[in-house]
Amino acid sequence: MKRKEKRLLQAVALGLTALVFLPNVGLWALYRERQLESGPEGAEAAAAVRAGVAQGQQRRQRKDIYFGDGQRRKDWHDKEAIRKDAERVGNGEQGKPYPITDAERVDQAYRENGFNIFISDKIALNRSLPDIRHPNCNNKLYLEKLPNTSIIIPFHNEGWSSLLRTVHSVLNRSPPELVAEIVLVDDFSDRGHCT
């Protein structure tokens, strides 16, 4: 009986500790970010915004903001590409549904892929997508020097158009200097177009 009571007390203590400290992790990150903004560089950026300095000048000023350890921060967002994507119209653009007629419904293709491959083949491989991130993410700065990465995309009997659309999306929405390679891994597909 004592063992069960001890474990119950440990679980309660762990739960209380999580309730006390986990919210503080998020609050600490917010506090640290505010402290950085209230430093000399952050005060200059705030003054520039109040003074109505042009957006290009603000971006240059924000690039000079450093993390607490002296590492430079950078705005990795490709604002021009995001703007161009937002202006695109057409079938499937902006993630909107493709208008389908009764003649275009192909049940067999849907059963094989989990989506209508017939319609997927009609949507552009370089499809635009809406920016669904929180608005604060648009102003987020990240380390200027980041390691590059390999992007691994496993697939099994994937529809060819959706697979190519995934590759296009990675290429279009990732900073080129951060992508070392894109590796497509065929997980024992048995369809002709995948092998």
TrEMBL record:
SUPFAM superfamilies: Nucleotide-diphospho-sugar transferases
Record GO terms (molecular function): polypeptide N-acetylgalactosaminyltransferase activity
Recorded superkingdom: Eukaryota
Gene3D superfamilies on file: Spore Coat Polysaccharide Biosynthesis Protein SpsA, Chain A
Transmembrane segments: 12-31
Coiled-coil segments on the chain, per record: none
Name of the protein in its database record: Polypeptide N-acetylgalactosaminyltransferase 10
High-level lineage: Eukaryota, Metazoa, Chordata, Craniata, Vertebrata
